[in-house]
Amino acid sequence: MPALAVRFAPSRSLAGRLSLSIALLVAVVSLVQSVVQGRLIEGVINRAEQETLAQAEASFHTTLGVHAREVRSVAETLGSLIRVRTALAGGDRPQMLQVLGPVFKSLQARTGISQMQVHTPDVHSFLRVNKPEQFGDDLSGFRHMLVQVNRDKVSLQGLEDGVSGLAVRGAVPVPGPDDRHAGSLEVGFLIEDAFLAGLRRDGVDFELYAPRKDGLRRLAASSAGLADSSADPALPAVLKDGTRRITLSAGDNGSHDVLLAPVSDYSGKIIAVLKVSADRARYAAEERDALMQAVLSFAVAALAGGCVAILLGRAMAAPILRLTGRLGGMAAGDLDGAVQDTNRRDEIGRAAVAVADLRGTLQADRDHQAERAAEQQDRLRHAAQIQAAIEAFEQAAAGSMDRVSAASAALRDTAGVMTGVAARTGTEAEAVSASVQEMSSRSAVISAAAEELCSSISGITTQIDASAEKAAGADAEAARAGTAAASLAGSVGRIGEVTGLISAIASQTNLLALNATIEAARAGDAGKGFAVVAGEVKALAAQTAEATLQINTHIHDVEGSTQEVLRTIDAVRQVIIESGEIARTVSQTMDEQTAATAEITRNITEASDRTADAARMMADVERAAVEARAAAETVETAARTMEEEAGVLRRLIQTFIGEVRR
């Protein structure tokens, strides 16, 4: 208890630790906020720098587009002039220079256009208005815009490299007076320092690099003081893969954000690299100001947080110290003191409620210990009573087990005697039953033989009667067969008469066919068809006569067979009549034999029935003996089991009493 009291003694440094923890938390949060704010400012500045570079690149391409549309418009206007068309179609170079020279000088002074050329359909220089003394050279090998304009008769605009350098060009086809293609006219604007200087603003400079015979060279720059970056290895990479690159460059003039972007010609092929440099001085100053503001914000927040932390630490430490004091008192054994701050709704209030619950639990445990001491005394008294009851039970159970064992032994002996008697009775009953069953079997055999004899005699009588009836039926059938045979003989005679008539008709038909053949021969060619028919009729008559002859032969054979059948039927009828007389005599004799056999069978059946009754009764006696023997064996087994169970019960009682006494 004293150790617990020391452990839970109120600590005066808790408020300081809470204040320090809260102050550190506020400082960390303020620092994180400042860092995040700095990151955000840095991100905003980076995006602003990238946006500046992107806008500068867009300004370059927009200016190129404006100049491209301008030079194309000028070229289309000049190419539509009839004097230009006529001079080009007629190959009149002086006339062409007279028309275009003043126009070129005016445009050069007002817009900065630096090139104006006219070409033949095969892309040879017809006239350079800006250099009249140079003409006639073949441009088809490298001026692909002019080749396409003269080939496809279309107007094109955009960047393309030429003899004078990289320029924004507009080229149009020029038809002759007869509207046939006469050549092309081109107006150009060279990309020079002045062009890029017009794009420079707010510390953003432009440079343009393009490949030449001696390597990558700078074509133009917006400021004279910019260092040449032709040796920068990033420039060839942009030319090769066309990927924009943004880097940071530091030099004598300060740090700059640098954009390297590909520049394409009119056909989309990359021919140059645009370098845009933006001075970071303005953004660096803004970044420093923003960081300074973030640091000041952090300092103010940390100071305010420290003050708040001190106040919060003191406010939070007071109830905690009260709780620790109450816990120390409870550890010392004071369970009756009240717990404060239980009505608060924060974590301290919940902790106070938990301490109050703990006090209640400790009080209940104290009361419970007193109750358990009283219950222990009651259990000791009850155990003494149980011990006395166990000793009395042990003595009574031992006497009962002895008596049960003696009764079981006597019952087992009696069951053995009953088993022997039942066994002898069963043996004698089996012998008598076997004799009776043998007698019954022999009686049954004799009875079955008598019944079979009687049945055989009855069957013979029935068959003899049936034979007599069938003989009478056969006699009637034979009579009907005789009548049918006589009728058949008459029918055969009539068939012979019919065949005679058919034979006469066939002879007459043959004569008619012969006469028809003679008449057809007299008719000549007109009777040929009729002669053929007559021949077929004659052949048919001959076949009929032959068939009739065969039928007569068969009829004579049938008449002979019919007479033989009549004689046979008469003989069969005589035999059937004699058989019927014999069958009736035998039937009368068998009736007398059947009556005698039936009387013998009845007497044998009565004897067999009585023998069967005796066999059934002996079987019942045998079953009763078997059941008595089984019952005796069951009683003997039950006696042994009861004796064994009595021993088991004795051991269980002894074990139980031994366990209880421990």
CATH class of the domain at 44-290: Alpha Beta
SS-based class: alpha+beta
Categorize the overall geometry. Answer: flat
Overall pLDDT level:
78
CATH homologous superfamily label of the domain at 44-290: PAS domain
**Helix segment tally:** 10
CA(first)-CA(last) distance: 38 Å
| Radius of gyration (Å) | 74 Å
What is the ordering of alpha helices and beta strands? Answer: HHHHEEHEEEHEEHEEEHHH
Helix content: over 70%
Largest beta-sheet characterization: 5 strands, antiparallel
CATH architecture of the domain at 44-290: 2-Layer Sandwich
- Provide the β-strand percentage band: 5-15%
Low-confidence parts, pLDDT < 50 over ≥5 residues? 1-12
Instruction: Kindly report the spatial arrangement of strands forming the biggest sheet.
Output: 2-1-5-4-3
Oligomer: single chain
Number of strands: 10
CATH third-level topology of the domain at 44-290: Beta-Lactamase
Description:
- By secondary structure, the protein is an alpha+beta fold.
- The protein has a domain at 44-290: Beta-Lactamase, CATH 3.30.450.
- Helix content is 73%, strand content 12%.
- The protein has helices at residues 2-7, 14-79, 82-90, 93-111, 144-152, 193-197, 234-241, 281-331, 347-523, 528-661; strands spanning 115-119, 125-128, 156-161, 166-175, 181-190, 204-212, 215-221, 245-251, 254-264, 270-279.
- The chain has a five-stranded antiparallel beta sheet, with helices on both faces. The chain has a five-stranded antiparallel beta sheet with strand order 7-6-10-9-8, with helices on both faces.
- Strand 8 (245-251) and strand 9 form a beta hairpin.
- The chain is flat.
- The two termini are 38 Å apart.
- Pfam families: dCache_3, MCPsignal.
- The chain crosses the membrane at residues 290-312.
- Belongs to the methyl-accepting chemotaxis (MCP) protein family.
